[in-house]
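Issue 218. Parser rejects a valid record. Input:
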Amino acid sequence: MTELRRRMIRDMTVRGFSPRTHEAYLSAVRRLAKHYGRPPDELSSDEIQDYLVHLVTKRKLSSSTCNIAANAFRFLYRVTLGRDATTFEVPASKQPQRLPEILSRDEVARLIASPPNPKHRLMLATIYAGGLRVSEAVQLKVSAVDRGRMTLRVEQGKGRKDRILPLSRRLMEQMEAYWQTEPPRLWLFPNRTGQRHVDVTVLQKVFTMAKLRTGIRKRGGIHSLRHAFATHLIESGADVPTVQRLLGHRSVSTTMRYFHLSQARLSAIRSPLDLLDASV
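Output the parser choked on:
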């Protein structure tokens, strides 16, 4: 490990950055150094800016990927290297704006019932029942399940925030049935050795296989279950601020898109064609 990398890791650790941020920032800096064939601390601000332009115009990477790279470079040069005046901008690029394709209740039920492995069925049910991010689901511990209060505790979700979710009675029954054959230990979803939680990629593959078995062709990966959770809640009458808290969104505007996507709201809107005089 180089001295610069060690210092950058130290600075990110002191500021409480998540392991995923560590990985993303270090990877961006590593690719920068490889591009120029020189250590990052020997590069000028103009060279960094040219590299960001290269990512957008030549490699045509997504705006989110380029923004992560820019944030990594700002951190490295401003914090670790102490170049306070350093500024980098990501060139504007038009990215396609796509709304998620929402799974119906029937489609969710079919997906959850599809895996032959009961553990995999429980994984999908848990993500949908709590509107969890896949990274939150894999890190659930058995102690997060409060049978007395019927709650599920998500620890250090996105933004390093804890939140408490209502625990579905049906999900609790499925957990207890599963625990009869697989007694609970530390992790709710352990890996094969039981020493760590299952990897995110396992859940992603389980969801992909479930889509193939059920023949569901709507776009989206396992995060579709979280989209469905939010939209179905709003369709059942839940207010947007409550859904916002359950999802752990910082801004209500992020949650509002599910309100706009809800079938109940769309069905209540009459097309102008239906308002025309039938004799015309």
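Fixed in the parser; the record now loads. The longest strand covers residues 151-154.
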